Amino acid sequence: MAAKDRARQLQEAFRTKRVDAVKMFAGNNWGNGGDPRIRYLNLIGNYVRIVSRHLISKDPRVLITTNRREHRPAVDAMQAWCNLEVQRMELAGTLQRVVLDGLFSLGICKVALSAPTDFSVLHRRLKAGMPYAQRVDLDDWVHDPHARDLSEACFMGHRFRAPLSVVKEWDQFDKKVRSTLTATPLSTYNEQGDERIGGLQRGEYSGDGEEYEDYVDLWEIFLPRLGAVVTLADDGSGETHEPLRVQPWLGPYCG
Length: 255
Fold this sequence. Notes:
By secondary structure, this protein is α+β, with helices and mostly antiparallel strands. The protein is built from nine helices and seven strands. It has a five-stranded antiparallel sheet with strand order 3-4-5-6-7. Strands 1-2 form a two-stranded antiparallel sheet. Strand 5 and strand 6 form a beta hairpin. Helix 3 (43-55) crosses helix 5 (91-104). The mean pLDDT is 84.
């Protein structure tokens, strides 16, 4: 947790500069969160709209081939299933948001099999155990700041919010740790005090207001050298909890 907190502090400057750029992109006519200065021609907005639609315009298509004649029916069925899954998970929309993030700072996409915590948040189009791709915001990202390249990072991970009731009931999480968790208020600012992007859209209503149900902030940290994924709770109290879950990494060797 100490290494994560220090890395978050070092990344504050990058998050702050991104917020400033997004405010200019939003302009003075976009709610109360945009840049108040009047610009009759928003060149940043024009640039983003033109470039982003050329990078990702529609759902990508999967092509799977084989040189073995006897395997072709199975491969064709696999290709058809993959293309249907791409449409079902609305991958084009996710990639468009990731590309938009990349034009301002860092575009991050998480690919995984969904757990109950993911299903409870993305319930509109996701079932537990199914593959999915999800955008990760820079405000919720952390990585080893001492690495020269992400491939050399000792750790990387992201924060996400999940319903407190789901976290307390899921038996894959440590029973003792989950029983002590309390709700984490939705904040407009990161723990270092810099403004979150999500606060711009809420404007004057961006305070720590009451949500529909209680949520808790969780961190999912990937440790490449150990081949493990650690889930940590962050309830806003500043206290260090024992891991909720430590699971072996299942996936490509590159992470």
